[in-house]
Design brief:
The complex is a heterodimer of chains A (about 425) and B (about 180). Chain A has about 425 residues and is mainly β. Chain A contains four helices and 31 strands. In chain A, the strands form seven sheets. In chain A, strands 2, 3, 4, 5, 6 and 7 form a six-stranded mixed β-sheet that branches. Chain A has a five-stranded antiparallel β-sheet with strand order 1-30-29-28-27, with no helix packed on it. A four-stranded antiparallel β-sheet of chain A has the order 10-9-8-31, with no helix packed on it. In chain A, a hairpin with a 6-residue loop joins strand 20 and strand 21. In chain A, helix 2 crosses helix 4. In chain B, helix 2 crosses helix 3. Chain B is about 35% helix and about 15% strand. Chain B has a four-stranded mixed β-sheet with strand order 1-4-2-3. Chain B has about 180 residues and is α+β, with helices and mostly antiparallel strands. Classes of the chains: A mainly beta (about 425), B alpha+beta (about 180). At the A-B interface, helix 1, strand 14, strand 19 and strand 23 of A face helix 1, helix 3 and strand 3 of B.
């Protein structure tokens, strides 16, 4: 099974090049507000004994770029490195102290006899104490260097901050080209968390919205208007296999996978008003959780899968509510502000991010269930679609610059921001995937 | 030769990819929306048409007739129909009653403010408000369908009230006259 999946992954990459053919512009990620006191670290070029097997983008570059983008690290430029150790025993600590580097990361690819499979050995040392913080190895074949680089960056991030990294993940987003023309096109695109390797997984002249990841980080649920009506579709991003999971009369919207991946919550208006429903994905059994004449939409599962948060305007204006998985005990969650909607649940700590606004502006706010206080994180006027990173450190969201949609990411403490911009077209509806294995 | 190789590899890859596919139901091929473009079929000889004859299909293209008005606008985050639009809805209701084979789509739309899925709900509620009024006039449910596009199909793209008020609308689209 594992081998089959790997083969299919390889095939998908080859096939998409053949079938799609058009190069997709990549999101450019820029740091807007930096953090003071970023940790000085050196990521030494990883050793490849056979230079021919060196990946197109060297591993150390991917790792250093990830760490820099997090805002918490200040990686040393390679040209300023005096030597290039491949293992902790080769580290001359005095040299790195002079360069004012606190940590040194290094590694080497050890190929098997076939020259295709092998493993990456990687290490992290603390310069002041001279201690080796970790020495690990991870099976790595040709073609896997980019994912492994992100995983090495995740390991470094976790060792030095205490929080798991989120670099080995993807983002999905919707790109709109030539809006309001006959040629208007909607594309659902999946790229690595650093914007690399964007792939269009579906393209249509009718709207696409609300992408939502399954916990396996390979299936996406989304809403398509391809038939002129809304449908909820689940698509495997590697095989392209699609299944319509809901096409009942009225709205079929707002899909959200349960934390165990077995259920899909949706908002359906088949009964006349939009209500929260849950579909068992193996049996197809449907359960209606809410029953109220108001709009009930944007379900989001709690981390333990026992509750579903949702948006309802049953009290007049949209606010966040919570219902038990069995449909009992609907309770109101937000009371601050005129408009709160579209909750994203932090998979790490359980914080809530939402669209918070009035008539003048709509911003991303975060709520801690302990204090029930809202904290506004984003500075925009038209911010929407918040989506937590799998480690809860950042919230990705959509914002506007003039008439153009761009993506932004802000740290959960609000101190650090990034802009994710495409050279062409309008981007919106970001969804950050769980970690890839 | 090169071409043959490419074709062969495409075929091979398709077969291999098919083997990767989990066993799920196939999605039918994507088709264009059913709604036909709502354009005039032939010039209207206005002299011979009574603009208040709401049974006459020629009035759908007659600028002097209420039947040519097919866009209704709403207040922010509201879905109640403004009284000024009631005569338009009545005119279309009369047309639908007089022409049982006529069909309309009520396309509900919202402005860009707030979240997209909530706006999908809002667009549907606006469509339903118009539907309810048509039903109250005696129109058969089988002739009318509500589709919400939320904020996905704006007619105007600036972030300003003059633009937003044009986007908060229900469009009456005849799919059969």
């Amino acid at each position: 099974m594992y081998l089959k999946e790997k083969l299919c992954l390889l095939l998908f990459t080859t096939a998409s090049l053949l079938f799609v053919g058009t190069a997709q512009a990549q999101l450019q990620i820029e740091i807007v507000d930096g953090v003071e006191g970023a940790l000085p670290i050196a990521v030494v070029p990883f050793v490849f004994d056979d230079p021919a097997s060196q990946p197109e983008t060297p591993m150390h570059e991917v790792i250093a770029a990830d760490l820099r983008r997090s805002g918490l690290f200040d990686p040393l430029a390679v040209e300023d490195m005096i030597d290039r150790p491949g293992s902790p025993s080769e580290v001359k600590f005095g040299t790195w102290r002079l360069l004012k580097v606190d940590y040194v990361a290094m590694g080497r690819w050890i190929p098997d006899a076939d020259g295709v499979s092998g493993e990456v050995q990687y290490h992290l040392v603390a310069v002041h104490s001279g201690r080796t913080l970790f020495s690990r190895a991870i099976p790595t074949g040709i073609g896997e260097f980019r994912l492994r680089s992100h995983q090495v960056a995740d390991a470094i991030y976790q060792e030095l901050t205490g929080t798991p990294g989120a670099f080995a993940s993807r983002i999905a987003y919707v790109k709109v080209s030539q809006p309001s023309t006959e040629q208007e096109q909607f594309e659902l695109i999946v790229a690595d968390s650093d914007g690399y390797g964007p792939q269009t997984i579906v393209r249509h002249s009718q709207p696409i919205l609300s992408p939502s990841w399954a916990p396996d980080a390979r299936r996406l649920a989304y809403v398509s208007f391809a038939t002129g009506r809304s449908n909820v579709i689940i698509q495997d991003i590697f095989t392209g296999q699609r299944e319509i999971v809901s096409s009942s009369p009225g709205i079929n919207g707002a899909p959200a996978f349960s934390p165990d991946g077995r259920m899909l919550a949706m908002s359906l208006s088949r009964t006349g008003s939009s209500e929260i429903w849950v579909r068992d994905l193996s049996s197809g059994r449907m359960e209606q959780l809410t029953s109220h004449w108001s709009i009930n939409t944007e379900p989001a599962w709690s981390r333990d899968g026992r509750h579903i948060y949702f948006t309802s305007d049953r009290a007049g204006r949209p606010q966040i509510y919570r219902v038990q998985r069995d449909g009992r005990n609907v309770e109101r969650v937000t009371f601050e502000g005129q408009y709160n909607s579209d909750v994203s649940v932090d998979p790490y700590q359980g914080l809530l991010a939402m669209v918070h606004g009035g008539e003048a502006d709509y911003r991303i706010a975060i709520m801690d269930r302990e204090s029930d206080r809202l904290r506004v994180l984003s500075p925009g006027r038209m911010d929407e679609s918040p989506s937590f990173a799998p480690n809860g450190t950042m919230v990705l969201y959509a914002t506007r610059e003039g008439e153009r949609g761009i993506l932004s990411a802000v740290s959960a403490d609000g101190r650090f921001r990034q802009r994710l911009v495409l050279t062409d077209g309008d981007v919106r509806e970001p969804a950050w995937s769980p970690l890839m294995r | 030769m090169k071409f043959a190789v490419k074709v062969l590899s495409v075929v091979l890859l398709s077969l291999l990819l098919a083997a990767c596919a989990p066993e799920t139901r196939d999605v039918p091929p994507e088709s264009a929306p059913e709604a036909q473009p709502d354009r005039p079929s032939e010039p209207v000889d206005i002299d011979r048409v009574d603009p208040q004859d709401y049974a006459d299909s020629r009035n759908l293209d007659n600028p002097d007739s209420l039947l040519s008005q097919r866009e209704l606008y709403f207040e922010f985050d509201r879905s109640d129909v403004k009284p000024e639009y009631l005569p338009i809805i009545r005119a279309h209701a009369n047309y639908l009653k007089a022409n049982p084979s006529a069909r309309v789509l009520l396309e509900g739309h919202a402005d860009e403010r707030g979240s997209r899925e909530y706006n999908l709900g809002l667009g549907e509620r606006r469509g339903n408000s118009v539907l309810d009024l048509m039903r109250a006039e005696g129109v058969s449910s089988s002739q009318v369908e509500v589709v919400s596009y939320g904020e996905e199909r704006p007619v105007c793209r600036q972030s300003s009230e003059t633009c937003w008020e044009r986007n908060r609308r229900v469009e009456i689209v005849y799919t059969a006259r």
